[in-house]
Amino acid sequence: MARIPPAVAAVRLAVRRALPAEGLVLVACSGGADSLALAAAARFVGASVGLVTVDHALQAGSATRATELATWAAAAGFDPVIVETVSVEGRPGGPEAAARAARYEALGSAAERTGAIAVLLGHTRDDQAETVLLALARGAGPRGLSGMPARKGIFWRPLLDVARADTRKACAALGLAPWEDPHNSDPAYARSRVRADALPALVEALGPAVVANLARSAELIAADNEELDRLAAAAFSVNVADLSVMSRAIRRRVLHSWALQLGAPGGALSHRHVAALDALVTEWHGQGPVHLPGGIEVARDRGILVRVP
Question: Mean pLDDT throughout 6-20?
Fold first, then answer.
C-alpha cells in the first residue's frame, strides 16, 4: 500500500477529528489551497459531504471559476454542489467586510436550505496567527486576541491547527490545482500586508514556532473568555450597586453584553463605548448619556443604567 503523504494525512486527521458521526456537512470552498485541501479531506473522510462556493462577482471570470469548481466537485462525488452568487454593493463597511458579510449570509442560507448541520471553513493556523497580529495592532482586548473560534454556530474550522504550507502540499500531492486569489496578495488589505511582510519578519526574528505560538495563545485566551463570559452572565445586572462591586473584567463584560442586547452592532461596539458605560458606574459625576453605535443612548437614573427613550 502506498504511503499517504504527511501533509495529506495531517489535513485528513484534522477533518476526521472535527466531523460528526452523521449528518450532512457542507464545505465552503473558494478553490484556494486551504479550502480545496479541506474539501478533498472531507470528501475522503465524511459520509455525507456537499460543497458550496460563493461568487462575489467582484473579479472578471469569477462566474467561470465558480462553475469549474462546481463541475469538479460534482465529479468528485460531493452532494449537493451549490454555487451562491452574491452582491456586495450597498453593504456597510469596506469592500472586505462587505464581501465577508455577504459570504456568510450565503453560506448560512445554503446550510438552512439543505439541512446541513455544519459548514466547514478552511482557515488554517497561519490565518489564526494573522488574526491575532491584526487584533494586537488594533489594540483589541481578549475577545479580539482569542482569534477565530473553532466552532461558532454552524460554522466549523477544522484546520486551525494545520499549517498553510501543509494545505498547499496536500493539494500538490493529490494533483489539485488551487486558484490564487489576487486579493490575498494585494497590499491594499491589512491582512495581505501581515501575510507578506509582518508575519515573515516575526518568523525571521523569533523563529518558525511563532506562528504556532500565536495560534496557541488565541486558543488559551478563548478558553479564558468562555469562563469569564459564563461568570458575567451569572452576575448580569444594570443596577449600579451590583455593578460597582464586580471586578472590572466581569463588569465590563456585563456592560458589553447589555449593549449588544440593546441592539448596538457588535462590529461597531468598541472598547471606548464600554469604557464610557463603565464610567457611569465607577466615575459618576452627573455626566450625560453615553452614545452607543446604532443610535442608542444610555444614562444613569436613580442608581440604574437605562436606555434613554
Answer: 96
